[in-house]
């Protein structure tokens, strides 16, 4: 359903609802509300800032008017807190409640705001709080695509009682109709309401040097009330700039050279069309984390950018920087440049906001958090916002920005999906980001999400998106990115062990399997299977035509071509197997490394002898090992699997001091000296390891086929190669057809097939019985564990791995089951805090390996590997160490530290609930009490 003229029915609930607003509602809002009043569910898709939440608030209004309950779910706690305060102000504290992971206020209220996980847990527990539930609002339902948490949304949608009206609010996505069709199929009677009209027109610009240029020659496509079908022309001035720049800038601004200096065929910095590669390469060589004023001529510095935005009256602005360090570095640069964007009165108000949110914190904690720098920048109207920022500091920034007092915020992309912080202008420093593995272009969907923050409804008459010029940038590519509105919603749903035991316990295996087949993931997969079948049918017609053209009067050329094809396939398979065997052997040799092992690095920059400091198996969360070593050149580095094209062997042992700290120069020098002395004493020789031998049976088969080819009558045909060209095209299409068929078969019922395998694993390990509804005591215990390593945790509880640990030790060991080391942290050496925890962690890893073997037997991917990167910090915090000391030891930003401590606390709570009465429950609760202190417990927004 799209927008058109809408009339409100007299005497309706909608008429009463709209009377409470001092502004008229948009047609799409009225349409969606009317569908709710008629008893339908709705999916509302509209741009950021278009007022979708009004529809959710109408569902609340309907619940209160009809005596039913309404649950308002949000993806993050901050949004839940914000919505709770809004609804309390509107409907009163006696009718509105709040439920998050660690907060419970009036939980039996008629309207309860909660995070989506809380509702999921209620459904699995058959909570009585679900009684009389009439409406569920799922705000930001596009979170369903989130790789880590998206499955929770589908669990809720599938698990809610059919009588509940579902109100789903989504950002603009390009497959809204597909998502709506699925909701209608699963829930029944769901209407789709779409608005593509931006409440505030968005103008697109590029800032080069000190000039702000329009990106388009005419009106930007995003500045029109509705999307334009006609392609907009790029501003000729920008094309002229690009041409003039090419005279001065080398081509490798787009395609940087490799370490060898010979150049790369593959682009190392995105596609190359958004530029910036030469500069990024230079910064890596200099070892700089952030930009400065020495950049290329057309790329403005941050100080220049901010000043120009201020002069053009384009503040307040959010500047997206795809790096936390870059955000904090930008704030420091503006401070160093003397930029001040506030009046005395605004500065005073900002200090007041900071005191309100931070007044309850101790002076020692504030010092540890660089409060003075934060306050100095804040008073000038400058701030950063990212996941590494302490929640209380974030609250200051959010309130100050919403009040129009903070003029520029440097933020990571997570802000685009988080709290409501619209701005007049959004700035994108670069259109290339690091995704954890390589530098990639941002997608049109990401561009839409990020720039969607520009333009404050009711405040700005227009919003602005500004892209900073980068050397080598192609303005036409930027225009293409800015004018496309592709943002498909893709399901990330996949059953887990916890989900499996909960579903089997509630509805039995057969019905659970049927429920999972209703997932959006399976719905999308089924649609792709139909497309694959269409491609296969088309290919078959073309195959027949090519084989007809390959006809040979000397014999059956199709038969001859099939022999040639079989030879080609076997030779390719033989080469692949040789490569896979060699890689597997190399990987296995790395997986067995231990600290102190002396090895030979066969390739790469650090080729030669090295001693292992840290095996690096914890850093990849199920990925490949990245061992930290000291080389014979006295460097301490992290190696990757690319340094080991062939296996390595241990030739000796070096003692690594227990207190070795790779961040301290003295520690590195002393260890390097010991290693060089050890090498001289050992005088080892690098072993030559031969690759795997070719499979004799396969080699014999290839020889036999070649003999058959020579005996075939078509082999001597003078037109053989002409026939062969047509036949090879037919064979290639046949390969495509067979692969399409295989993909279609693999995708059919993929969710149900995974569920069946999970059931087999759980049955073999004693969590499920052989009957349809049978869940064992161990299974009921597993049903209370929601972590990614739920089965490993359950096995550890059953085997008594956590028994006998005190509270700090338990916190340290459990942290390895929830923590995930970020790539930027992998230079740090991780270890357990004492011998007791080291022994317990050894048992945890043994349990993980045992579970992995069972998973392999049932053809499931291996669970992620335990990660000890937070163990020392968890132990220290649970032991009562002060914040400054713990942050200094772990090297994490304060926001990350608090987030991980809270996750450990949540895990401790799950273990306490799962373990039942006894010492483990008592110790878990002791650890929770010990860790809930200071900045971890402090939340000024919670009463």
Written overview of the protein:
The chain is α/β, with parallel strands linked by helices. Helices cover 47% and strands 11% of the residues. The chain is built from 34 helices and 22 strands. Strand 6, helix 6 and strand 7 form a beta-alpha-beta unit. About 4% of the residues have low confidence.
End-to-end separation: 42 Å
SSE class:
alpha/beta
- Rg from alpha-carbon coordinates: 31 Å
Principal-axes geometry comes out as globular
Look at the structure and give the mean pLDDT: 84
Q: Going across the major beta sheet, what is the strand order?
A: 4-3-5-2-6-7-1-8
How many E strands?
Answer: 22
- Poorly predicted spans: 250-267, 280-296
Largest sheet: 8 strands, mixed
Number of distinct helices: 34
Quote the beta fraction.
Answer: 5-15%
Helix share of residues? 40-55%
């Amino acid at each position: 359903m799209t927008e058109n003229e809408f009339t409100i029915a007299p005497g309706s609930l909608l008429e009463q609802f709209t009377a409470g607003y001092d502004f008229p509602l948009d047609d799409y809002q009225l349409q969606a509300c009317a569908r709710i009043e008629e008893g339908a569910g709705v999916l509302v898709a509209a741009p950021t800032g278009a007022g979708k939440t009004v529809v959710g608030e109408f569902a609340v209004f309907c619940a209160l008017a009809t005596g039913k309950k309404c649950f308002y779910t949000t993806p993050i706690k901050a949004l839940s807190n914000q919505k709770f305060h809004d609804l309390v102000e509107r409907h009163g504290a006696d009718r509105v409640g709040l439920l998050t992971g660690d907060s419970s206020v009036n939980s039996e209220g008629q309207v309860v705001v909660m995070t989506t996980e809380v509702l999921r847990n209620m459904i699995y527990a058959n909570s009585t709080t679900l009684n009389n539930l009439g409406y569920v609002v799922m705000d930001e339902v596009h979170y369903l695509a989130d790789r880590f948490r998206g499955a929770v949304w589908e669990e809720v949608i599938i698990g809610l009682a059919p009588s509940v009206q579902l109100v789903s609010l989504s950002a603009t996505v390009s497959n809204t109709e597909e998502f709506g069709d699925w909701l209608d199929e699963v829930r029944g009677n769901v209407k789709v309401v779409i608005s593509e009209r931006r409440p505030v027109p968005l103008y697109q610009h590029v800032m080069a040097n000190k000039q702000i240029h329009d990106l388009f020659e005419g009106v930007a496509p995003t500045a029109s009330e509705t999307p334009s079908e006609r392609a907009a022309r790029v501003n000729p001035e920008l094309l002229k700039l690009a041409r003039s720049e090419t005279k001065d800038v080398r081509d490798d601004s787009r395609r940087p050279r490799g370490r060898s200096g010979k150049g790369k065929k593959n682009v190392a910095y995105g596609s190359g069309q958004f530029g910036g590669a030469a500069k990024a390469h230079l910064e890596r060589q200099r070892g700089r984390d952030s930009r400065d004023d020495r950049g290329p001529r057309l790329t403005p510095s941050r100080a220049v950018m901010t000043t120009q935005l201020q002069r053009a009256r384009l503040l307040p602005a959010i500047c997206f920087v795809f790096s936390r360090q870059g955000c904090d570095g930008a704030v420091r640069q503006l401070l160093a440049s003397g930029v001040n964007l506030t009046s005395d009165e605004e500065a005073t108000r900002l200090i007041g906001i900071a005191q309100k949110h931070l007044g309850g914190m101790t002076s020692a904690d504030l010092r540890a958090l660089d409060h003075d720098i934060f306050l100095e920048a804040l008073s000038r109207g400058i701030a950063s916002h990212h996941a590494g920022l302490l929640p209380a500091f974030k609250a200051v920034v959010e309130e100050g920005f919403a009040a129009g007092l903070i003029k520029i915020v440097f933020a990571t992309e997570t802000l685009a999906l988080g709290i409501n912080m619209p701005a007049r202008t959004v700035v994108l420093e670069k259109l290339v980001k690091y995704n954890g593995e390589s530098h990639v272009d941002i997608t049109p969907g990401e561009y839409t999400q990020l720039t969607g923050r520009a333009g404050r409804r009711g405040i700005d008459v227009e919003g602005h998106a500004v892209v900073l010029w980068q050397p080598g940038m192609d303005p036409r590519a930027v225009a293409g990115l800015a004018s496309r509105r592709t943002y498909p919603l893709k399901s990330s749903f996949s059953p887990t062990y916890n989900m499996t035991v909960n579903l089997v316990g509630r509805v039995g295996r057969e019905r659970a399997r049927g429920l999972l087949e209703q997932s959006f993931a399976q719905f999308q997969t089924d649609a792709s299977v139909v497309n694959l079948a269409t491609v296969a049918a088309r290919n078959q017609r073309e195959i027949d035509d090519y084989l007809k053209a390959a006809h040979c009067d000397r014999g059956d050329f199709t038969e001859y071509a099939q022999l040639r094809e079989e030879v080609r396939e076997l030779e390719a398979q033989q080469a692949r197997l040789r490569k896979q065997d060699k890689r597997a052997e190399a990987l296995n040799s790395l997986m067995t490394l231990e600290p102190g092992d002396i090895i030979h690095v066969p390739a790469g920059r650090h080729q030669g002898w090295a001693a292992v400091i840290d095996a690096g198996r914890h850093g990849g969360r199920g990925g490949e090992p990245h061992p930290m070593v000291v080389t014979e050149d006295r460097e301490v580095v992290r190696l990757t699997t690319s340094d080991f094209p062939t296996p390595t062997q241990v030739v000796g042992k070096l003692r690594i001091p227990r207190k070795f700290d790779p961040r301290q120069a003295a520690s590195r020098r002393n260890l390097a000296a010991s290693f060089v002395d050890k090498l001289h004493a050992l005088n080892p020789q690098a072993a030559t390891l031969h690759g795997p031998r070719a499979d004799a049976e396969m080699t014999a088969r290839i020889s036999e086929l070649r003999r058959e080819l020579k005996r075939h009558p078509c082999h001597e045909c003078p037109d053989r190669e002409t026939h062969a060209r047509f036949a090879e095209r037919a064979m290639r299409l046949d390969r495509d057809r067979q692969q399409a068929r295989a993909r279609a078969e693999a995708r059919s019922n993929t969710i149900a097939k995974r569920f069946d395998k999970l059931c087999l694993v759980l049955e073999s390990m004693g969590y499920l019985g052989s009957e349809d509804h049978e869940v064992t005591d161990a299974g009921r215990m597993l049903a209370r564990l929601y972590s990614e390593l739920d089965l490993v945790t359950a096995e550890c509880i059953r085997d008594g791995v956590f028994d006998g640990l005190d509270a700090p030790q338990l916190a340290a060991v459990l942290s390895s089951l929830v923590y995930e080391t970020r790539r930027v942290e992998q230079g740090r050496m991780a270890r357990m805090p004492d011998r007791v925890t080291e022994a317990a962690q050894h048992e945890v890893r043994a349990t993980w390996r045992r579970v992995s073997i069972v998973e392999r037997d049932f053809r499931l991917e291996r669970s992620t590997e335990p990660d000890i990167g937070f163990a020392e910090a968890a132990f220290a915090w649970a032991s009562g160490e002060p914040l400054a000391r713990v942050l200094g030891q772990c090297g994490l930003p304060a926001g990350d530290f608090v987030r991980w401590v809270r996750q450990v606390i949540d895990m401790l709570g799950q273990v306490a609930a799962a373990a039942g009465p006894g010492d483990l429950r008592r110790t878990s609760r002791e650890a929770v009490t010990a860790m809930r202190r200071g900045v971890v417990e402090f939340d000024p927004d919670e009463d």
